[in-house]
Request: fold
Amino acid sequence: MEMNLLGVGLPLGLGFAALGSGIGLGNAVNGAMQAMGRQPEAHGKIQVSMIIGMAFIEALTIYAFVTVFVLQAKL
Amino acid sequence: MGFSGSLDKDFLRRVERTTLVLGLVLGLCVAAIAGARGSAAFITGAAISVVNLAAIRFIVQKVIQPQPQVGFRLAMGLMVKVPALFAIVFLCMKVGLPLTWLAAGFSLLFVVLLGKVLSTLALRAAGIQVSEPRAKRTRHEGDSGTTQNDGTSQGASNGTSKSAKGRLMGTAGTVGLLLLLGTPLLPSLHGKQEGWTTKFWTEQRSVLAADAANDLGAGTDAHAGTDAHTAPSAGEVPADAAHTSDTAHTARTAGTQEQAHTAPADLLAQHEPADQSNDPHSTNQQGHDAPPQEEHSADENQATPPAGVHTTMETEKGTISLFNPDKFPKRNEHGTEEAHGGEHGEGHDDHGGVQHFPNLLTYAIGIMRPLGVSETVIGYLEKYENLIFALIATIILGLLTSRAMRKPEMVPGKLQNLIEYLFGGYYEFVRGVLGDEAKRYIPFVGTLFFYIWCMNWMGLVPGGHSPTASPYVTFPLAICVFLYVQYIALTRLGPIKYLAHLAGDPKDPVGWAMVPLMLPLHLIGELAKPLSLALRLFGNIMGEDTLLALFAGLVVIAIPHVGGFGIPFHLPFMFLALLASTIQALVFSLLATIYISQVLPHGHDEEHAH
Reply:
């Protein structure tokens, strides 16, 4: 029986993608929170930018996630 | 004055505009049914009819001017127009555009005309005057020099406010129509191209042995590389047969993937004898010897187009196998392949692969099948599942808003309060990004937001299903955004400025030197926008629904171990899903807003990151 490396690679890859995204998200939220703390009046604008940025960062994990589902067929 | 009031220049102009837009959209849709040629023919047909109408309008306008030799002018105009029209049509046919689609495109204008006339009449019957004042006003201004300066001018005075309203309604209607058209049509088109039809993940519910067999032929067999099989497998059974899956529920052999692994011998036996005899696909190019498990597709095919239609789609095999997760049967020790028929729907049995809650349609089909409803109908129901739920979302939104706003009051009731709060809040939100331009683009992005939001949440309702968990819904939405943004860029910025914008607004030598680098970068970025929009929404919602279904499955599994009652493991994720659905809808529409703001004349100083 052959080992299918995808079975190892897919979860690992998704995990790495999530790791990177997590760091990025942490950075983004960190920056946004500090900015909000410093300038509470700019709260709304910062939040909007933060959400957009988070969406972009998160998208990377989603790509990995979609890839997993796409390649799952080959498992 | 009867109906003549709205059959003026402006009305015709609006008809032309609508026809052009509709022709483009429908033409793109036709592409999937009739190929590039049919699409080109359709669009050409629509364009010809529009040009034709414009020419007629021009001629009539010239003719009715109070000048001598009217007959002569008319004759001259017709002499130019009629042969030109015939020449163009002849040319098109010479090029090889199919006449049917040409005619269909040509008749689109009349359909639009009829629709507009009817809707105007209906609205007038309902006591609403949509944009007629505006039409009168423009005509009044446009033809003030001509003879027909009749008594319609009083409409112009109070026309302004009403026309703005009518225009808003018109825009909203158009956008809604576009979304509606865009959303459902794409999947149906893919219907023609095999595996895609069988919707992505939802086909889970309706897997059939034949489907799996074909998929395995298309995909795994080539890649699996396992050797010890005595029986040559399906080889490359044209995966088109996969698309028959929609109708092929008769083939629903029981058995999860696990069961398939252990391959009950009787199932195998049942499969084997049938293949050579009535495999409709065995003559296909890939040359496989004995595709097993084909007896199912044989009886499916009565409900589907003849196999020949699909045989050209071989190139898509990669895609199919890509997009058919979980349908890949494993081999067992005997070297045969067993499809797992899939008990989808009812219980969340875990057979690997993606899981979904059963929804209303699943139940409805479950009821209908024993009642003897034809497989064609059921196949259509399954095929258009996303469409049906998207339609339900539209209906919900429409009913809700129309109910809430039928008699708007100063002191709003509950429903009106809710709607006003949501819409007002969203409007303020968009205004934070677009500024004063928000009023102009709120119909589009607002529709996007509430539509997507509603669709996302539908997956959380028992018996519901998120259409956005399918790429066939998210991609059309994203393409709508893409097209709309390009349209805004071209009209508001102008082609030259837009090009400059894409080249990074070069001002100094350094900037000009960067153009070769910036232009492709921006172009790719522009194309990546819809892709990332669609993938983000689809991935999020699909992942969310899958997560919920998985945990709900866990509940079922855990029941015997915790004393016969269920612990709702998926409840926390339900709240997460509520939140995430909202945020994803927000992100989608917010990104659309930002893309719009980037291409507005002054909007490209900030938020350039993408």
